[in-house]
Amino acid sequence: MSAIVDHVIAQVVGLEIRLLACQARLQAHTDPEALHDLRTSVRRLRSLIRPLRGLPGVDQLEDAAKAVGQLTTPLRDREVLAAHLAKQGHEQAAARRVELMHGVFAQVAAAPEVERLARVVDGFPRFARAAQRQKLLRGLKGTIDKRLGKQWKKLAEALKDPAHDRHRLRLLIKRVRYAAEAYPQLDQLPAEVMARLKKAQGTLGDWHDLWQWLLRAQQEADLQPCVAGWQLSLKRAEQRCDKTLDKLLAAIV
């Protein structure tokens, strides 16, 4: 039990360092990947603590991480769309969205949600050690293992559903993938399964971008020239998703 607690704390401390580095990069606006890296770190943190729900300090940490995710999602979506538009030669539409991002990185770095997450992450190891001393973490390894198993079961059931929801599948795949990376000693995946998870996450991500952009085009007139191409790409992305998901299901059953 002590080993798994040590592992969780070490992972949290490592993610805290990454979060603080991302915050500093956003504040200084040193590179275009800072926001993406912040979101990835927060997602990994949420995957690490999801199996710990109900333990001291975990709910507070999860709430803080969720708030940062909600804050940054629309900003990252705009950032990705602007890059895509620029790549496709829609320079004016891209420039409008780049202009909307002016000053946003520094605002995110100083946002109350990010500051709160930094405080809560910093205090979590003390909560965990106190709970350990009070013998509140008995059977933690078994609890985590059981909850990881439930995540895999949900994913397998969703993949087998002929009317599967791609949005839900995308979230479930992220959860099992990042949880497997967070707890390699408990969730030892064959290389083929991990590769299938990554591939499925990528194809679903491409599909989700297109689906979201088509929704935005209903409200943002300057996106109308892109609609026909996006609709065609969406159909192709759906076909790629189905093939990738079939291969993932075959690898895990």
Describe the structure.
With 253 residues, the chain is mainly alpha-helical. It folds into two domains: 1-138, Up-down Bundle (Four Helix Bundle (Hemerythrin (Met), subunit A)), CATH 1.20.120; 144-253, no CATH class. Helices cover 80% and strands 0% of the residues. The chain has helices at 2-28, 34-49, 58-87, 91-100, 104-109, 112-133, 140-160, 166-182, 191-217, 227-252. Helix 1 packs antiparallel against helix 6 (112-133) and helix 3 (58-87) runs antiparallel to helix 4. The longest helix has 30 residues, at 58-87. The mean pLDDT is 93.
Précis, in short:
By secondary structure, this protein is mainly alpha-helical. The protein has helices at about 1-30, 35-50, 60-85, 90-100, 105-110, 110-135, 140-160, 165-180, 190-215, 225-250.
**Global structural class:** mainly alpha
CATH class of the largest domain: Mainly Alpha
Structural domain tally: 2
Spell out the helices and strands N to C: HHHHHHHHHH
**Overall geometry:** flat
Measured as a percent range, the helix fraction is over 70%
Spans with pLDDT under 50 lasting ≥5 residues? none
How would you state the average pLDDT, rounded? 93
Number of beta strands:
0
Strand content: under 5%
Largest sheet: none
Distance between the termini: 30 Å
CATH-derived architecture of the largest domain? Up-down Bundle
User: What do we call the CATH topology of the largest domain?
Assistant: Four Helix Bundle (Hemerythrin (Met), subunit A)
